[in-house]
């Protein structure tokens, strides 16, 4: 039983709400407590479901909640400072692009923050390796293996203009569709910025 | 007709076992333990040029238990498809003193490692491309800690400090 709790805690640390959802599902389907063999069956099922969910969310796609207004109006367009958990956008993040790091200008990506590996940010790719990106004061060269990201809402976005180019190894996935709220379900398009980038 | 059903059922059962096995393999490789073939001269004399097989554990870096002196496997900041094996020399907040090109000059530089980054260097300073060239490495690029060598058998064992 201890092992189950430890495993649950470890997986919670590592993989968010997607995993909780599937686990509750399995648990509800196996509600009779009692003899050890039943508990062992439940444990085996939970473990299998957990492992499969973890693999799918690592290699194929996962669902992520977007917080903050730095990607207004693409995500969270209501600039309400009391964004409660239910009204935040949920999006589909696909991981197939990470095989060969095939990313294009205008893709919205999820990446770990260079200053704090536990935080993940959602921004749009403005520059790819080798590009020259025009910021207000300067023209910056994006080194190889890095990308330049910016939020759609330039006024309130902490992005490459503050922490510099982001190594592509920190990119964790590409956002392709919005899944919640229902009236904004649809695909997220590539929006290439005009006149910001001179490709090398 | 019935025979096809039996065959299909057996195929599904076999396929589900294989899928479950591959999923467990992926989870173990990414979150617990994996093996890696490392080669190149940048970590002499700790690791050989011709190639060693080492075991990498993926638990310490998630718990924040890495420190200076640890051998780590990191994703290269210059090419996200490649992995490098280097040693952590300084953690965030530490001051690091290094010489850019030890074979040419004796001059050295110092800097403080920024928050969320580590400073990695190869043991063979003359031929290693590490933080002295590409700067402090974001902690998120660390994939695991190298703790043991399993091949060649003559140098089987744990890595000391």
Automatic annotation (TrEMBL), chain B:
Q: State the Gene Ontology BP annotations.
A: protein processing involved in protein targeting to mitochondrion; signal peptide processing
The reply to whether Transcription regulation figures as a keyword in the UniProt entry is: no
One GO MF annotation is: serine-type endopeptidase activity
Check the record and name the PROSITE patterns matching this protein: SPASE_I_3
Peptidase S26 domain sequence ranges:
17-99, 108-151
Cellular component terms per the entry's GO annotation: mitochondrial inner membrane peptidase complex
- Name it: Peptidase S24/S26A/S26B/S26C family protein isoform 3
State the organism of origin.
Hibiscus syriacus (Rose of Sharon)
Q: What is the lineage of its organism?
A: Eukaryota, Viridiplantae, Streptophyta, Embryophyta, Tracheophyta
């Amino acid at each position: 039983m201890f092992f189950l709790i430890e495993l649950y805690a470890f997986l919670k640390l590592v993989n968010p709400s997607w995993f909780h959802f599937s686990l509750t599902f399995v648990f509800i389907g196996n509600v009779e407590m009692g003899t050890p063999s039943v508990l062992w069956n439940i444990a085996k099922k939970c473990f299998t479901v957990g492992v499969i969910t973890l693999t799918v969310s690592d290699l194929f796609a996962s669902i992520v909640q977007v917080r903050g207004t730095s990607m207004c109006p693409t995500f969270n367009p209501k600039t309400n400072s009391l964004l409660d958990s239910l009204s935040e956008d949920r999006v589909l993040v696909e991981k197939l692009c990470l095989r060969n790091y095939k990313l294009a200008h205008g893709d919205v990506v999820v990446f770990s923050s260079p200053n704090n590996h536990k935080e993940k940010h959602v921004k749009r790719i403005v520059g790819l390796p080798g590009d020259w990106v025009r910021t207000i004061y300067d023209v910056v060269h994006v080194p190889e293996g890095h990308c330049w990201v910016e939020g759609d809402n330039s006024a309130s976005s902490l992005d490459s203009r503050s922490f510099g180019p982001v190594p592509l190894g920190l990119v964790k996935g590409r956002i392709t569709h919005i899944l919640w709220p229902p009236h904004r379900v649809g695909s997220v398009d590539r929006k290439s910025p005009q006149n910001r980038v001179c490709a090398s | 007709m019935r025979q096809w059903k039996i065959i299909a059922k057996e195929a599904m059962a076999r396929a589900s076992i294989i899928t479950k096995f591959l999923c467990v393999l992926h989870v173990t490789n990414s979150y617990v333990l994996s093996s890696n073939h490392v080669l190149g001269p940048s970590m002499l004399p700790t690791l050989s040029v011709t190639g060693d097989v080492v075991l990498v554990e993926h638990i310490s870096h998630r718990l924040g238990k890495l420190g200076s002196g640890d051998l780590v496997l990191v994703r290269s900041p210059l090419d996200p498809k490649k992995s490098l094996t280097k040693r952590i020399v300084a953690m965030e907040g530490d001051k690091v003193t290094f010489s850019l090109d030890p074979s040419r000059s004796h001059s050295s530089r110092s800097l403080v490692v920024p928050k969320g980054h580590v400073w990695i260097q190869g043991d063979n300073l003359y031929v290693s491309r590490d933080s002295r060239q590409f700067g402090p490495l974001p902690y998120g690029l660390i994939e695991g800690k190298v703790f043991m060598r399993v091949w060649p058998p003559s140098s089987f064992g744990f890595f000391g400090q």
